[in-house]
Specification:
Radius of gyration of chain A: 20 Å
Number of domains of chain B: 1
Radius of gyration of chain B: 23 Å
Oligomer: heterodimer
Number of strands of chain B: 2
Largest interface: A-B, 36 and 37 residues
Number of helices of chain B: 17
Structural class of chain B: mainly alpha
CATH topology of chain B: Cytochrome C Oxidase, Chain A
CATH superfamily of chain A: Cytochrome c oxidase, subunit III, four-helix bundle
Strand content of chain B: under 5%
Distance between the termini of chain A: 57 Å
CATH class of chain B: Mainly Alpha
Distance between the termini of chain B: 23 Å
CATH superfamily of chain B: Cytochrome c oxidase-like, subunit I domain
Shape of chain A: elongated
Helix content of chain B: 55-70%
Order of helices and strands of chain A: HHHHHHH
Shape of chain B: globular
Number of strands of chain A: 0
CATH architecture of chain A: Up-down Bundle
Structural class of chain A: mainly alpha
Helix content of chain A: over 70%
């Protein structure tokens, strides 16, 4: 395969990945739609519930994901310049960030659950409608997002293995680029989730 | 016959086992050739279609007499749910892009395969796995879902039937649909032959392209909505539960944000197919090429903004009813442009009534009845009394079956000779078509009248004054099935025993006809050079 055809195939793969990201945005879009609709109906309850969440954990998670994004981008450049070891280290940092994010989530959720706030719990069901909906959306949306962080981390770990095995080469980085695009999407969704659930009082 | 001619006749093209990587059936179900995957889609979806037909005939049989005829009310609920799910998620959504899109879109644009061949194979596998999951609910202790294919809350979150499993199946099929959409968009953008400009794309390609965008953008909304129903069933989150402050209407909004555009997933490829057939059998260039191409995109765009016209009687605000009613009328404009342009294409054309053309003509006729009865339902005032009646059932069967389904039959009669290189018996096809067409109108026009008179839909029982029309409708379903049997047997017989069809039996001008029949495994040996539009019948067919 000559060089031109590789760049052609890469452009096609990139287009395919962007189309896939559109579908992810539309899927989370459904949850944003529900959030908007219910927030308009229960502004006070949503504001009160948001104050119960730990801003620092949310902010730390934003920082963690952004650091991960930074490292995946660097890893693409590193691989392009031929530093496979560096690329793998950067990917490992990103995967670590993914793990850290999920650990933070675990801390936060276990705290909530200990306080008795989880779907269908007696405590939550005795709270106001607005609060039930806020925490319902909180668990569903952040749960789906957390699942994406997990999947993103696994994909990037696989990419690191590919680099190690030599099936991802400096000449053909498209798989790594697409994997990193997925991480950016997960990151950017958090950039919206963080203010919606933690900051908007 | 000379030896070379004999060799040409016995050449089975891409069908030949010598092109299989694996032996026997594995050479098909693990093939990444777009033509083989297209045929896999065709046969699996037609199989599910026949199951759906049988359930439909069973439902009509139940409605032959008032009261219980053959099944209980509960079984009737299960039947109309499975009929809807099969016909929509397993037949009309996947078949046109999956079968004909796969088979002919790459050929139409001068490409040797789709953009992502392995993803394409994954799409088919996901489709089959999802389909079997949906059908598998029949064998679960809970039984198949009894909610109707719309899975409306709160019932879908409460019924003991296997709703969760059915939703899982729909989710998987939806994922397959998204992957097909991504593949088609990328193929059209990236793999057109250099001389295949956008202005030279056959209208079938435009149809699949617009469909693919809806698949990509709308299907995720269905995915998340159905996941939320599962969350309600398993964790009782309360997002759609009024007791906990949730709003069941939000479910309906989110469901129809996908499911109304899905109507166009089922219809736009059909419009593309008809736009291929009509110029060929009128020997005239399509009237208003750009109006046709843009109106397909306009239907896809405007059609995505009209979802709440399914909810006029749900207690939505009157302002919302007004807006969605207005937008619904707006979709009629590009649809009417298409109908008028097809008619103008035929005007002063040299029309030959070969079987594909008969289906194209009946598409226009049936789709127009479906479209006009759709306007009756789109107007809020007439919608309210008709909403829960058989009128709606008649209307959407005219659009979906009379539009999408008839287009599939037309496509089969247009393209099977190309795929297999054998021509079916045209007389038998014409007879089958006539019987099918009569049966179709007996079956569904009766429903329009019944609904107008007040017969409720989704009921297995009715007062005696509706008996005559129900009997006519049920007899119509038998006539339709006889027509269908003749059509399909004739096609299958044609595949095996038909006379050689030649490379271009219809004297068409799109690129697939430049290739030998059956189609060669590698499509184009050299990148085709296109010098004119797809319907320039005064120019000769380009050499491969």
């Amino acid at each position: 395969m000559n060089h031109a055809s590789v760049s052609e195939t890469n452009a096609t793969a990139r287009l395919g990945m962007w189309l896939f990201l559109f579908t992810e945005i539309m899927m989370f879009g459904g949850l944003f739609l529900l959030y908007a609709s219910y927030r308009v109906r229960f502004p006070q309850a949503f504001s009160d519930s948001a104050q119960q969440l730990n801003i620092w954990l949310g902010a730390a998670n934003a920082l963690i994901l952004l650091t991960g994004s930074f490292c995946t981008t660097l890893s693409v450049t590193a691989l392009r310049r031929g530093s496979r070891r560096l690329a793998m280290i950067l990917l490992a940092i990103t995967v670590l960030m993914g793990g850290l994010f999920l650990f933070n989530h675990y801390l936060e959720w276990s705290g909530q659950i200990r306080a008795g706030i989880y779907p269908n719990s007696p405590v939550l069901d005795h709270m106001s409608h607005g609060e039930i909906l806020f925490f319902g959306l909180y668990y569903v949306t952040l749960g789906l997002h957390g699942l994406h962080v997990l999947i993103g981390s696994i994909i990037l770990a696989v990419m690191a293995v590919f680099i190690g095995r030599g099936s991802l080469t400096p000449e053909d980085t498209i798989k790594l680029e697409n994997a990193s695009l997925f991480w950016h999407l997960v990151d950017i969704i958090w950039i919206f989730l963080f203010p919606l659930y933690y900051l908007m009082h | 016959m000379t030896e070379t001619q004999l060799a040409a006749v016995s050449d089975r093209g891409f069908l030949d086992p010598k092109h299989s990587k694996y032996p026997g059936i594995f050479g098909w179900i693990f093939s990444t050739d777009h033509k083989r995957i297209g045929l896999l889609y065709l046969y699996s979806a037609m199989g599910f279609f026949l199951i759906g037909v049988m359930i439909g005939v069973g439902m009509r049989l139940e409605l032959l007499t008032p009261g219980r005829t053959i099944v209980s009310a509960q079984t009737y609920n299960d039947m109309f749910t499975m009929h809807g799910m099969i016909m929509i998620f397993l037949f009309l959504v996947p078949l046109p892009p999956g079968a004909f899109g796969n088979l002919f879109l790459p050929l139409h644009i001068g490409a040797n395969d789709v953009a992502f061949p392995r993803l394409n194979l994954l799409s088919w596998w996901l489709y089959v796995i999802g389909a079997l999951t949906i059908l598998g609910t029949v064998f679960t202790p809970g039984g198949p879902p009894d909610t109707g294919w719309t899975l409306y809350v709160p019932f879908s979150t409460q019924t003991p039937h296997s709703v969760t499993m059915a939703i899982l199946g729909i989710f998987i099929v939806g994922f397959s649909s998204i992957l097909t959409g991504i593949n088609m968009i990328a193929t059209v953008h990236r793999l057109r032959a250099p001389t295949m400009k956008w202005s030279r794309l056959p209208l079938f390609v435009w149809g699949i392209y617009a469909t693919a965008w809806i698949q990509v953008l709308a299907t995720p909304m269905l995915a998340i909505t159905l996941l939320l129903v599962v969350a309600e069933r398993l964790f009782h989150v309360g997002l759609f539960n009024a007791v906990k402050g949730g709003d069941p209407l939000m479910y309906q909004h989110m469901f129809w944000i996908y499911s109304h555009p899905a109507v166009y997933i089922m219809l736009l490829p059909g419009m593309g197919i008809v736009s291929e057939i009509i110029p060929v059998f009128s020997r005239k260039r399509i009237f208003g090429y750009w109006a046709m191409a843009i109106s397909v995109l306009a239907i896809a765009g405007a059609g995505s903004l009209v979802w709440a016209h399914h909810m006029f009687v749900s207690g939505m605000s009157t302002a919302a009813v007004f807006v969605f009613s207005l937008l619904t009328f707006a979709v009629a404009i590009p649809s009417a442009i298409k109908v008028f342009n097809w008619l103008s294409t035929m005007y002063k054309g040299s029309i030959s009534l070969d079987p594909p053309m008969l289906f194209a003509l009946s598409f226009i006729f049936l789709f127009t009845i479906g479209g006009l009865s759709g306007l009756v339902l789109g107007a809020a005032a007439t919608n309210v009394p008709l909403h829960a009646t058989d009128f709606v059932v008649g209307h959407f069967h005219y659009v979906m079956f009379g539009g999408g389904g008839v287009a599939v039959l037309g496509a089969l009669h247009y393209w099977l000779p190309k795929i297999y290189g054998k021509m079916y018996n045209k007389t038998a096809a014409t007879v089958g078509w006539a019987i099918f067409f009569i049966g179709f109108n007996l079956l569904y026009f009766s429903m329009l009248i019944l609904g107008y008179e007040g017969m409720p839909r989704r009921y297995y029982n009715y007062p005696p004054q509706f008996t005559v029309l129900n009997v006519i409708s049920t007899v119509g379903s038998w006539v339709l099935v006889i027509g269908l049997i003749i059509l399909l047997t004739n096609l299958i017989h044609g595949i095996f025993r038909g006379t050689p069809a030649g490379n271009n039996p219809w004297d068409a001008r799109t690129l697939e006809w430049t290739l030998p029949s059956p189609l060669p495994a590698e499509n184009f040996a050299t990148v085709p050079v296109v010098t004119h539009g797809p319907y320039d019948f005064e120019s000769p067919l380009e050499s491969p």
